[in-house]
Amino acid sequence: xxxxxxxxxxxxxxxxxxxEVDFEHLKFNLDKLNQVPLDGYVIGGSNGEFAYLSVEERIxxxxxxxxxxxxxxxxxxxxxxxxxxATIDLTMxxxxxxxxxxxxxxxxxxIGKMTAxxxxxxxxxVAEASHLPILLYSVPANTGLILPAEAVLRLAPHPxxxxxxxxxxDVTRIGYLVKNTPDDxxxxxxxxxxxxxxxxxxxxxxxxALTNIAAPDLAQMVExxxxxxxxxxxxxxxxxxxxxxxxxxRFGVAGLKxxxxxxxxxxxxVRSPLLPLSIEEKSELRKILSEAELLG
Length: 296
Prior knowledge:
Layout: E1 6-11, H1 23-33, E2 40-43, H2 55-67, E3 74-78, H3 84-97, E4 101-105, H4 116-129, E5 134-138, H5 140-143, H6 149-155, E6 161-166, H7 171-180, E7 186-189, H8 195-200, E8 205-208, H9 211-226, H10 230-250, H11 252-262, H12 279-291
Parallel strand pairs: 1-2, 1-8, 2-3, 3-4, 4-5, 5-6, 6-7, 7-8
């Protein structure tokens, strides 16, 4: 069974000015990311604006990434849909497109009916039908829904459910899940802001926005942690909290794309109805990145 760990950027989807997917700049960004210490890529996740992409666009982006993927890196594709039927179909198509793992966000439109039992049935059906290993994905800031811990504990023993991205920021919950799931169930922090705390309680890696622009710093933090140099690891974690907040909760995907522009990647526009950053917001973002020593 595939066992995941390490640092994965949630890669943004680049667009042309007219809103169409910009595959040329997608390759440009991947070629640059291939030069920094990473274990793979998450494509078509929240920072990939998957909610604003058609199914065909999501598949074509994964196909494009697979063409420039180094053999030692893992391709994780967002494949969640609102219905179980559609999720199974997209997961199968992502396997055909070249993904190694499917990241499945919690269905949430009928949030009042998304009980632990409903979510368990959903994920089990996807795992049974899928041709890919599955990562559970709980991102309450976007869905309003926390994947219940009891559901995770019952899903974790399934051989094709290999881990979880938990973006809730509750380190106590992450520790509880680590303690009560099989050793080969990989739990990832879903944001760099609480990464060191998550590592301390047993998380195996990070899937997040900041990984696009701070991969060397994050790799160094993990190395310090693994070597018992906790003060050095803490210094990096504290330095990265402000830029992580800036490219997630504060400025969102537009902030991440602007930050990528500032360090030499292609950022480009977000897709409507998301708004671009104002001149003042870009100036503030640049100051935050500079103070965090991320501008070179």
